[in-house]
């Protein structure tokens, strides 16, 4: 969620809390008040929390502490702290002094639904120490801190959890958690840590998952087939790991909602499979540095009409760039650098003018730009080094009127099918 949205959300929660509070005036019980002071003091001992916030902490909550109101069986309204968010408001506050583990009792921890720390590099604590008593969490967001250790097995019992974001910490070890019980989890982001080993099969039981990001770790072995069960998945990033030698997983075709898929920087190898028919919603594909061989399937151009980003650079792809790539009208970056592609570049001058130097074709010595398109192409300098094709692909009007060869006629029809990009003066 964008910081602004989070801010709005937090503010609205606080506003609602205050309205309800004016009507009923329930007070935070003293044990919970004391527990909250201790959390705040352990997080930042340089602030005199008790002096600054002497009253009921839910009446005038410090930034980052959010309360909610509950009615119990006797309809009596009670108040509890439900959120400790040291992300937004405490953003980059703790770069100097070392921050210690916020210790909470199990009863206080159970009522906390959100725990957020963003960009606090001096929060150098083991993850197991942080999460132990927060068993009621819905959101755990620890991004850009010094959190270390592994993902503790007890996370398997966080049955209310909807988001686990642990990106850019110093976490490591193999991930052995059984995720099967986390039926509400929508976001799992372990990116930019030092995790290794196999990605657990049980990730395939996270049927509500929208985002899975394991990028920039040391995961290896086979990408679990069970991930094919993630029918709701919209974002999959497994790039920059050591997943090996089993090719691009064909199960991607079972993920009808998929919008972005990044597998770059693994050793997957093999050919790009024909899986694109069911994946028309995809807008981003990163398959670079993967040891891919064979051709680029024309079906990508035919089916991926919403594609904005395609990265296939630094592979061993050969053959031509499919003519159908001229259909990718929303593309804002296509990177095919450093392959063994050959033949004519199929893009029109209009397409080239739009995408500019985000069409990257260097390092394919067999590619050529058509002479007749050459002068009007504005590809930036990314095409600068490509040679001109020997024979013009597009019949000029004179050739065409005088009959031409059947080969030229065929290519003329293909160009027309591509949507009238070619203008005959
Ligand atoms: C969890 O609760 C127990 C029991 O109150 C306490 O001893 C321990 O320090 C707490 N752990 C953390 C990390 O808050
Ligand atoms: C994970 O937990 C589920 C349900 O709790 C259980 O059925 C399954 O056998 C467990 N899997 C592993 C690998 O332990
Ligand atoms: C979790 O996934 C595993 C492997 O895909 C499967 O065998 C198991 O039955 C699933 N468990 C539950 C509780 O859904
Ligand atoms: C292609 O290879 C060249 C030379 O090795 C390198 O400088 C360039 O960065 C590569 N392009 C990409 C997109 O990685």
Characterize the structure shown.
Pfam families: LRR_1, LRR_8. The protein has a domain at 248-425: Leucine-rich repeat, LRR (right-handed beta-alpha superhelix) (Alpha-Beta Horseshoe), CATH 3.80.10.10. It is 19% helix and 20% strand. The chain has helices at 3-24, 30-43, 49-52, 106-111, 127-131, 298-303, 349-355, 397-401, 406-417; strands spanning 65-71, 77-86, 114-118, 139-143, 148-149, 163-165, 170-174, 187-189, 194-197, 211-213, 218-221, 235-237, 242-243, 260-262, 284-286, 293-294, 309-311, 316-319, 333-335, 340-344, 359-360, 366-369, 387-388. Strands 1-2-3-4-6-8-10-12-14-15-17-19-21 form a 13-stranded mixed beta sheet. The chain has a 5-stranded parallel beta sheet with strand order 5-7-9-11-13, with no helix packed on it. Strand 3 (114-118), helix 5 (127-131) and strand 4 form a beta-alpha-beta unit. The structure holds 2-acetamido-2-deoxy-beta-D-glucopyranose (4 copies). The site of one 2-acetamido-2-deoxy-beta-D-glucopyranose (NAG) has 4 residues, from loops.
Number of strands: 23
For the sheet with most strands, the description reads: 13 strands, mixed
Average pLDDT works out at 80
**What does the radius of gyration come to?**
28 Å
At the third CATH level, what is the topology name of one domain? Leucine-rich repeat, LRR (right-handed beta-alpha superhelix)
Fourth CATH level, the homologous superfamily of one domain:
Ribonuclease Inhibitor
- CATH architecture grouping of one domain: Alpha-Beta Horseshoe
- How would the global form be characterised? elongated
CATH class label of one domain: Alpha Beta
